[in-house]
Amino acid sequence: FFSSMPSEKAARRVCVSYPVEVRDVQPESPPGVSAQARTVARIGPGRGLFLTEAVKGGDTILVDDPVMIYVDEGKKRNTCANCFRMKAGNKGELPCSCGTCGQAWFCSTECQAASARATPGQGHSPQECALLHKMSRMSKRLGGQEGITLARMLIKAALIKAHDTVRWRQLQDLCAPDGLEDHACDWGVLCLRITELGGECAALGGAQARLVLQRDASNGMGILSKMEEGEEPSLRAGCLYGTCSMLNHACSPNVARFDDFDSADEGNMKVMIRALSDMDAGTELRMNYLSILVGVEERQKRLLDEYGFKCECDRCHLESLFPDDESEDEEQDGKGKASSGAKQPQPTPTEEEEDRRNALALWIAKYSCPAEDCGGTMAPVEGAEEKHEAGSVKRRKLSDSTDDAEDVLGGGGGGAEVEMECNRCGQVLHGLDRVYELLE
User: Fold this and answer.
1) Which of 15, 174, 201, 410 has the smallest number of CB atoms closer than 10 Å to its CB?
2) What is the pLDDT of residues 305-314, one digit of tens each?
3) Are 100 and 133 in contact (CB under 8 A)?
4) H or E element at residue 116
5) How large is the C-alpha radius of gyration of the chain?
6) Integer CA distances (angstroms), 316 to 27, 31, 326, in order
7) Using alpha carbons only, what angle is made at residue 269 by residues 14 and 131, rounded to the nearest 5 degrees?
Protein backbone atom coordinates (compact mmCIF):
# COMPACT_ATOMS: atom_id res chain seq x y z
CA PHE A 1 0.00 0.00 0.00
CA PHE A 2 2.76 2.43 0.91
CA SER A 3 4.95 3.01 -2.11
CA SER A 4 8.11 3.51 -0.09
CA MET A 5 7.87 0.53 2.25
CA PRO A 6 11.24 -1.21 2.36
CA SER A 7 11.49 -4.68 0.88
CA GLU A 8 11.64 -7.70 3.20
CA LYS A 9 15.37 -7.94 2.51
CA ALA A 10 15.86 -4.31 3.49
CA ALA A 11 13.62 -4.72 6.53
CA ARG A 12 15.67 -7.65 7.79
CA ARG A 13 18.86 -5.66 7.29
CA VAL A 14 17.51 -2.72 9.27
CA CYS A 15 16.23 -4.97 12.05
CA VAL A 16 19.64 -6.54 12.47
CA SER A 17 21.60 -3.29 12.44
CA TYR A 18 19.63 -0.13 13.06
CA PRO A 19 21.37 3.10 14.10
CA VAL A 20 19.62 3.40 17.45
CA GLU A 21 20.55 2.94 21.09
CA VAL A 22 18.39 2.95 24.23
CA ARG A 23 19.15 5.43 27.01
CA ASP A 24 17.49 6.52 30.20
CA VAL A 25 15.86 9.93 29.73
CA GLN A 26 15.53 12.59 32.41
CA PRO A 27 12.53 14.96 32.47
CA GLU A 28 13.26 18.28 30.78
CA SER A 29 12.69 21.53 32.65
CA PRO A 30 9.86 23.74 31.33
CA PRO A 31 11.02 26.95 29.65
CA GLY A 32 12.42 29.31 32.31
CA VAL A 33 12.22 26.78 35.15
CA SER A 34 15.32 25.39 36.86
CA ALA A 35 15.84 21.67 37.33
CA GLN A 36 15.50 22.09 41.10
CA ALA A 37 12.06 23.65 40.69
CA ARG A 38 10.52 20.72 38.81
CA THR A 39 7.43 19.17 40.33
CA VAL A 40 8.57 15.99 42.04
CA ALA A 41 5.40 14.09 41.12
CA ARG A 42 5.82 14.75 37.42
CA ILE A 43 6.20 11.51 35.43
CA GLY A 44 9.43 11.44 33.45
CA PRO A 45 9.79 10.04 29.94
CA GLY A 46 11.69 6.96 31.19
CA ARG A 47 13.71 5.42 28.39
CA GLY A 48 14.26 6.79 24.90
CA LEU A 49 15.82 6.00 21.51
CA PHE A 50 18.85 7.95 20.27
CA LEU A 51 20.63 7.88 16.91
CA THR A 52 24.12 6.39 16.83
CA GLU A 53 24.77 7.77 13.34
CA ALA A 54 23.46 10.56 11.12
CA VAL A 55 20.40 9.90 8.93
CA LYS A 56 18.70 11.65 6.01
CA GLY A 57 15.08 12.72 5.85
CA GLY A 58 13.10 9.76 4.51
CA ASP A 59 15.49 7.13 5.87
CA THR A 60 13.83 4.12 7.49
CA ILE A 61 15.61 4.15 10.83
CA LEU A 62 13.99 1.15 12.46
CA VAL A 63 11.78 -1.82 11.62
CA ASP A 64 10.26 -3.68 14.55
CA ASP A 65 8.07 -6.75 15.11
CA PRO A 66 5.34 -6.78 17.77
CA VAL A 67 6.08 -8.31 21.16
CA MET A 68 2.40 -8.51 22.05
CA ILE A 69 -0.69 -7.70 20.00
CA TYR A 70 -4.33 -8.09 20.96
CA VAL A 71 -7.60 -7.45 19.15
CA ASP A 72 -10.09 -4.83 20.33
CA GLU A 73 -13.27 -6.41 21.65
CA GLY A 74 -15.43 -4.28 19.34
CA LYS A 75 -13.49 -5.45 16.25
CA LYS A 76 -13.01 -9.14 17.07
CA ARG A 77 -15.51 -10.33 14.44
CA ASN A 78 -13.90 -8.52 11.49
CA THR A 79 -10.22 -8.58 12.53
CA CYS A 80 -8.26 -11.79 12.05
CA ALA A 81 -6.91 -13.13 15.36
CA ASN A 82 -3.80 -14.39 13.57
CA CYS A 83 -2.68 -11.85 10.95
CA PHE A 84 -4.82 -8.89 12.19
CA ARG A 85 -5.99 -8.00 8.68
CA MET A 86 -9.53 -6.61 8.56
CA LYS A 87 -12.49 -7.67 6.49
CA ALA A 88 -12.96 -5.50 3.39
CA GLY A 89 -15.15 -2.51 4.18
CA ASN A 90 -14.49 -2.92 7.93
CA LYS A 91 -17.94 -4.48 8.35
CA GLY A 92 -19.40 -7.96 8.66
CA GLU A 93 -17.89 -11.12 10.08
CA LEU A 94 -14.81 -12.89 8.78
CA PRO A 95 -15.52 -16.32 7.26
CA CYS A 96 -13.96 -18.50 9.98
CA SER A 97 -14.39 -18.49 13.76
CA CYS A 98 -13.33 -20.56 16.75
CA GLY A 99 -16.13 -22.95 17.65
CA THR A 100 -14.64 -23.69 21.08
CA CYS A 101 -14.42 -20.28 22.75
CA GLY A 102 -16.48 -18.19 20.29
CA GLN A 103 -14.05 -15.29 20.84
CA ALA A 104 -11.81 -15.36 17.75
CA TRP A 105 -12.40 -14.88 14.04
CA PHE A 106 -10.06 -15.57 11.11
CA CYS A 107 -9.71 -14.42 7.51
CA SER A 108 -9.07 -17.97 6.23
CA THR A 109 -8.78 -21.58 7.33
CA GLU A 110 -5.02 -21.29 6.75
CA CYS A 111 -4.80 -18.43 9.27
CA GLN A 112 -6.93 -20.36 11.74
CA ALA A 113 -4.69 -23.43 11.50
CA ALA A 114 -1.49 -21.36 11.78
CA SER A 115 -2.89 -19.52 14.78
CA ALA A 116 -3.57 -22.76 16.66
CA ARG A 117 0.09 -23.80 16.18
CA ALA A 118 1.49 -20.48 17.42
CA THR A 119 3.49 -20.06 20.61
CA PRO A 120 1.09 -19.26 23.47
CA GLY A 121 0.67 -15.51 23.64
CA GLN A 122 0.81 -15.24 19.85
CA GLY A 123 -2.09 -16.02 17.52
CA HIS A 124 -4.91 -18.09 19.07
CA SER A 125 -3.30 -21.02 20.85
CA PRO A 126 -5.28 -23.76 22.65
CA GLN A 127 -4.19 -22.26 25.99
CA GLU A 128 -5.54 -18.83 24.99
CA CYS A 129 -8.74 -20.38 23.68
CA ALA A 130 -9.42 -22.02 27.06
CA LEU A 131 -8.77 -18.78 28.97
CA LEU A 132 -10.93 -16.72 26.59
CA HIS A 133 -13.75 -19.23 27.06
CA LYS A 134 -13.58 -18.71 30.84
CA MET A 135 -13.33 -14.94 30.35
CA SER A 136 -16.50 -14.86 28.23
CA ARG A 137 -18.48 -16.22 31.15
CA MET A 138 -17.48 -13.28 33.38
CA SER A 139 -17.53 -10.56 30.70
CA LYS A 140 -20.29 -8.60 32.46
CA ARG A 141 -17.97 -8.12 35.45
CA LEU A 142 -14.99 -6.79 33.48
CA GLY A 143 -16.04 -3.17 33.02
CA GLY A 144 -17.59 -3.02 29.55
CA GLN A 145 -15.88 -3.20 26.18
CA GLU A 146 -12.66 -1.54 27.31
CA GLY A 147 -12.37 -3.90 30.26
CA ILE A 148 -12.85 -6.95 28.05
CA THR A 149 -10.23 -5.66 25.61
CA LEU A 150 -7.74 -5.18 28.46
CA ALA A 151 -8.61 -8.65 29.77
CA ARG A 152 -7.69 -10.05 26.36
CA MET A 153 -4.38 -8.21 26.61
CA LEU A 154 -3.68 -9.56 30.10
CA ILE A 155 -4.38 -13.11 28.94
CA LYS A 156 -1.78 -12.60 26.19
CA ALA A 157 0.70 -11.25 28.75
CA ALA A 158 0.11 -14.16 31.13
CA LEU A 159 0.77 -16.67 28.35
CA ILE A 160 3.92 -14.81 27.26
CA LYS A 161 5.20 -14.82 30.86
CA ALA A 162 4.64 -18.58 31.15
CA HIS A 163 5.83 -19.69 27.70
CA ASP A 164 8.07 -17.05 26.06
CA THR A 165 10.88 -15.73 28.26
CA VAL A 166 12.38 -13.56 25.50
CA ARG A 167 9.17 -11.63 24.84
CA TRP A 168 8.42 -11.38 28.54
CA ARG A 169 11.82 -9.80 29.12
CA GLN A 170 11.06 -7.31 26.33
CA LEU A 171 7.78 -6.37 28.02
CA GLN A 172 9.53 -5.91 31.36
CA ASP A 173 12.06 -3.57 29.74
CA LEU A 174 9.28 -1.06 29.00
CA CYS A 175 8.66 1.61 31.61
CA ALA A 176 5.62 1.27 33.88
CA PRO A 177 5.08 4.74 35.40
CA ASP A 178 2.98 5.17 38.50
CA GLY A 179 0.20 7.74 38.57
CA LEU A 180 -1.65 6.71 35.40
CA GLU A 181 -5.39 6.96 35.98
CA ASP A 182 -7.77 4.07 35.39
CA HIS A 183 -9.98 4.78 32.39
CA ALA A 184 -13.44 3.35 31.73
CA CYS A 185 -12.80 0.30 33.90
CA ASP A 186 -11.38 -0.26 37.38
CA TRP A 187 -7.89 -1.72 37.03
CA GLY A 188 -7.96 -3.18 40.54
CA VAL A 189 -11.16 -5.12 39.86
CA LEU A 190 -9.86 -6.20 36.43
CA CYS A 191 -6.61 -7.58 37.89
CA LEU A 192 -8.60 -9.54 40.48
CA ARG A 193 -10.93 -11.01 37.86
CA ILE A 194 -8.02 -12.04 35.64
CA THR A 195 -6.37 -14.07 38.39
CA GLU A 196 -9.69 -15.87 38.91
CA LEU A 197 -9.29 -17.43 35.45
CA GLY A 198 -6.64 -19.71 36.93
CA GLY A 199 -3.73 -21.32 35.10
CA GLU A 200 -1.25 -18.87 33.58
CA CYS A 201 -3.42 -15.91 34.64
CA ALA A 202 -3.27 -16.95 38.28
CA ALA A 203 0.51 -17.27 37.95
CA LEU A 204 0.68 -13.74 36.51
CA GLY A 205 -0.83 -12.35 39.69
CA GLY A 206 -2.57 -9.06 40.39
CA ALA A 207 0.59 -6.99 40.95
CA GLN A 208 2.19 -8.07 37.66
CA ALA A 209 -1.14 -7.61 35.87
CA ARG A 210 -1.27 -3.97 36.99
CA LEU A 211 2.32 -3.41 35.78
CA VAL A 212 1.31 -4.80 32.38
CA LEU A 213 -1.64 -2.38 32.29
CA GLN A 214 0.70 0.51 33.11
CA ARG A 215 3.17 -0.55 30.42
CA ASP A 216 0.40 -0.83 27.85
CA ALA A 217 -1.08 2.56 28.79
CA SER A 218 2.25 4.39 28.50
CA ASN A 219 3.91 2.43 25.66
CA GLY A 220 1.14 0.81 23.62
CA MET A 221 0.44 1.70 20.00
CA GLY A 222 -3.08 1.67 18.59
CA ILE A 223 -3.67 -0.08 15.27
CA LEU A 224 -6.47 1.71 13.42
CA SER A 225 -9.03 0.27 11.03
CA LYS A 226 -8.63 0.69 7.29
CA MET A 227 -9.53 4.12 5.98
CA GLU A 228 -12.91 3.94 4.29
CA GLU A 229 -14.70 6.92 2.73
CA GLY A 230 -17.26 8.43 5.07
CA GLU A 231 -16.08 6.46 8.12
CA GLU A 232 -14.19 7.57 11.18
CA PRO A 233 -11.13 5.39 11.84
CA SER A 234 -11.47 3.19 14.93
CA LEU A 235 -9.15 0.98 16.94
CA ARG A 236 -8.83 -2.59 15.70
CA ALA A 237 -6.00 -3.72 17.99
CA GLY A 238 -3.43 -2.65 20.56
CA CYS A 239 0.24 -3.46 20.20
CA LEU A 240 3.48 -3.30 22.17
CA TYR A 241 6.83 -3.29 20.35
CA GLY A 242 10.13 -4.12 22.02
CA THR A 243 12.02 -1.12 20.63
CA CYS A 244 9.59 1.27 18.91
CA SER A 245 7.45 1.47 22.05
CA MET A 246 10.36 3.30 23.72
CA LEU A 247 9.88 6.32 21.44
CA ASN A 248 8.99 9.36 23.51
CA HIS A 249 6.46 12.02 22.52
CA ALA A 250 7.12 15.36 20.85
CA CYS A 251 4.47 17.84 19.73
CA SER A 252 6.89 18.65 16.88
CA PRO A 253 8.21 15.15 16.10
CA ASN A 254 11.27 14.18 14.05
CA VAL A 255 10.05 10.71 13.02
CA ALA A 256 6.79 9.17 11.81
CA ARG A 257 5.50 5.65 12.25
CA PHE A 258 4.44 3.65 9.19
CA ASP A 259 2.65 0.31 9.14
CA ASP A 260 0.45 -1.62 6.72
CA PHE A 261 -1.49 -4.28 8.58
CA ASP A 262 -3.75 -5.00 5.60
CA SER A 263 -0.91 -5.72 3.21
CA ALA A 264 -1.03 -9.15 1.57
CA ASP A 265 2.72 -9.48 2.09
CA GLU A 266 4.29 -11.51 4.86
CA GLY A 267 5.43 -9.32 7.74
CA ASN A 268 2.35 -7.07 7.59
CA MET A 269 2.55 -6.47 11.36
CA LYS A 270 5.96 -4.78 11.23
CA VAL A 271 6.17 -1.12 12.15
CA MET A 272 8.62 1.22 10.40
CA ILE A 273 10.03 4.44 11.85
CA ARG A 274 10.99 7.01 9.20
CA ALA A 275 12.97 10.24 9.64
CA LEU A 276 11.09 13.46 8.81
CA SER A 277 14.33 15.35 8.15
CA ASP A 278 18.12 15.10 8.38
CA MET A 279 19.38 14.35 11.90
CA ASP A 280 22.78 14.06 13.52
CA ALA A 281 24.09 11.23 15.68
CA GLY A 282 22.99 11.63 19.30
CA THR A 283 19.54 13.03 18.41
CA GLU A 284 16.67 11.57 20.41
CA LEU A 285 13.95 10.14 18.18
CA ARG A 286 10.47 11.40 19.07
CA MET A 287 7.09 10.86 17.46
CA ASN A 288 3.75 12.55 18.08
CA TYR A 289 1.41 10.31 20.09
CA LEU A 290 -1.65 12.14 18.74
CA SER A 291 -1.66 14.22 15.54
CA ILE A 292 0.39 17.32 14.78
CA LEU A 293 -2.91 19.08 13.95
CA VAL A 294 -4.35 18.74 17.46
CA GLY A 295 -4.52 22.13 19.20
CA VAL A 296 -2.56 22.88 22.35
CA GLU A 297 -5.50 22.80 24.79
CA GLU A 298 -6.84 19.43 23.61
CA ARG A 299 -3.32 18.08 23.16
CA GLN A 300 -2.23 18.83 26.71
CA LYS A 301 -5.45 17.42 28.17
CA ARG A 302 -5.18 14.16 26.23
CA LEU A 303 -1.49 13.68 26.99
CA LEU A 304 -2.19 14.13 30.69
CA ASP A 305 -5.31 11.93 30.71
CA GLU A 306 -4.05 9.17 28.44
CA TYR A 307 -0.29 9.11 29.06
CA GLY A 308 0.09 10.68 32.48
CA PHE A 309 2.36 13.64 31.74
CA LYS A 310 1.97 17.36 31.26
CA CYS A 311 3.71 18.59 28.13
CA GLU A 312 5.61 21.86 28.56
CA CYS A 313 7.56 21.89 25.29
CA ASP A 314 8.46 24.98 23.26
CA ARG A 315 5.56 24.41 20.86
CA CYS A 316 3.01 24.18 23.67
CA HIS A 317 4.43 27.35 25.23
CA LEU A 318 4.36 29.18 21.89
CA GLU A 319 0.81 28.15 20.96
CA SER A 320 -0.47 29.10 24.42
CA LEU A 321 0.53 32.70 23.60
CA PHE A 322 -1.89 32.74 20.63
CA PRO A 323 -5.18 31.25 21.91
CA ASP A 324 -7.12 32.97 19.10
CA ASP A 325 -5.44 30.66 16.57
CA GLU A 326 -6.99 27.60 18.17
CA SER A 327 -10.44 29.17 18.63
CA GLU A 328 -10.47 30.21 14.96
CA ASP A 329 -9.60 26.66 13.88
CA GLU A 330 -12.39 25.23 16.04
CA GLU A 331 -14.89 27.71 14.60
CA GLN A 332 -13.93 26.78 11.04
CA ASP A 333 -14.31 23.03 11.52
CA GLY A 334 -17.56 23.41 13.45
CA LYS A 335 -16.26 21.66 16.53
CA GLY A 336 -15.70 24.65 18.77
CA LYS A 337 -17.36 24.68 22.17
CA ALA A 338 -18.77 27.66 23.97
CA SER A 339 -16.37 28.92 26.61
CA SER A 340 -17.53 29.47 30.17
CA GLY A 341 -16.53 32.58 32.07
CA ALA A 342 -14.31 35.46 31.07
CA LYS A 343 -11.12 34.85 29.13
CA GLN A 344 -7.90 35.05 31.04
CA PRO A 345 -5.64 37.94 29.98
CA GLN A 346 -2.73 36.78 27.83
CA PRO A 347 0.76 38.31 27.68
CA THR A 348 1.46 40.27 24.50
CA PRO A 349 3.67 38.15 22.20
CA THR A 350 7.00 39.61 21.17
CA GLU A 351 8.03 40.13 17.55
CA GLU A 352 10.30 37.08 17.82
CA GLU A 353 7.38 34.97 19.05
CA GLU A 354 5.26 36.21 16.12
CA ASP A 355 7.99 35.06 13.74
CA ARG A 356 8.17 31.70 15.47
CA ARG A 357 4.39 31.31 15.17
CA ASN A 358 4.62 31.89 11.41
CA ALA A 359 7.46 29.38 11.19
CA LEU A 360 5.35 26.88 13.12
CA ALA A 361 2.48 27.34 10.65
CA LEU A 362 4.84 26.54 7.76
CA TRP A 363 6.17 23.48 9.58
CA ILE A 364 2.64 22.15 10.23
CA ALA A 365 1.65 22.83 6.61
CA LYS A 366 4.60 20.80 5.36
CA TYR A 367 4.24 17.78 7.63
CA SER A 368 0.44 17.43 8.05
CA CYS A 369 -1.65 15.45 5.57
CA PRO A 370 -4.10 17.71 3.68
CA ALA A 371 -6.69 14.93 3.25
CA GLU A 372 -9.91 15.60 5.14
CA ASP A 373 -10.31 13.64 8.40
CA CYS A 374 -6.96 11.91 7.94
CA GLY A 375 -4.74 13.46 10.62
CA GLY A 376 -1.66 11.68 9.31
CA THR A 377 1.94 12.89 9.22
CA MET A 378 3.74 13.47 5.92
CA ALA A 379 7.27 12.07 5.76
CA PRO A 380 9.78 12.18 2.89
CA VAL A 381 9.78 9.16 0.61
CA GLU A 382 13.06 7.32 1.05
CA GLY A 383 15.60 8.51 -1.55
CA ALA A 384 13.18 11.08 -3.04
CA GLU A 385 15.46 14.05 -2.31
CA GLU A 386 18.29 12.54 -4.34
CA LYS A 387 15.97 11.91 -7.31
CA HIS A 388 14.21 15.27 -7.34
CA GLU A 389 15.58 18.14 -9.43
CA ALA A 390 16.07 21.60 -7.94
CA GLY A 391 13.04 23.88 -8.14
CA SER A 392 12.72 27.42 -9.41
CA VAL A 393 14.30 30.43 -7.68
CA LYS A 394 10.94 31.33 -6.25
CA ARG A 395 10.48 27.91 -4.75
CA ARG A 396 13.98 27.82 -3.39
CA LYS A 397 13.23 31.03 -1.50
CA LEU A 398 10.08 29.53 -0.06
CA SER A 399 12.07 26.46 0.91
CA ASP A 400 14.32 28.74 2.94
CA SER A 401 11.26 29.85 4.89
CA THR A 402 10.45 26.22 5.65
CA ASP A 403 14.01 25.67 6.83
CA ASP A 404 13.46 28.52 9.30
CA ALA A 405 10.41 26.70 10.64
CA GLU A 406 12.39 23.52 11.09
CA ASP A 407 15.24 25.34 12.81
CA VAL A 408 12.84 26.91 15.29
CA LEU A 409 11.18 23.59 16.17
CA GLY A 410 14.10 21.20 15.86
CA GLY A 411 13.06 19.78 12.49
CA GLY A 412 16.54 19.88 10.97
CA GLY A 413 17.19 20.20 7.27
CA GLY A 414 15.16 18.86 4.38
CA GLY A 415 13.83 22.09 2.93
CA ALA A 416 14.28 20.84 -0.64
CA GLU A 417 11.27 19.90 -2.73
CA VAL A 418 10.85 16.17 -2.09
CA GLU A 419 8.03 13.70 -2.37
CA MET A 420 6.17 13.29 0.91
CA GLU A 421 4.00 10.34 1.92
CA CYS A 422 1.23 10.20 4.53
CA ASN A 423 1.67 7.55 7.19
CA ARG A 424 -2.11 7.19 7.50
CA CYS A 425 -3.83 7.38 4.08
CA GLY A 426 -0.73 6.75 1.95
CA GLN A 427 -1.09 9.64 -0.50
CA VAL A 428 2.14 11.02 -1.99
CA LEU A 429 2.70 14.67 -2.93
CA HIS A 430 5.47 17.28 -3.05
CA GLY A 431 6.36 18.31 0.47
CA LEU A 432 6.13 22.09 -0.03
CA ASP A 433 3.05 22.29 -2.26
CA ARG A 434 0.77 23.29 0.63
CA VAL A 435 3.34 25.81 1.89
CA TYR A 436 3.45 27.48 -1.54
CA GLU A 437 -0.36 27.69 -1.64
CA LEU A 438 -0.50 29.29 1.80
CA LEU A 439 2.17 31.87 1.02
CA GLU A 440 0.70 32.75 -2.37
Assistant:
1) 15
2) 888 888 889 9
3) yes
4) helix 109-116
5) 23
6) 16, 10, 12
7) 130
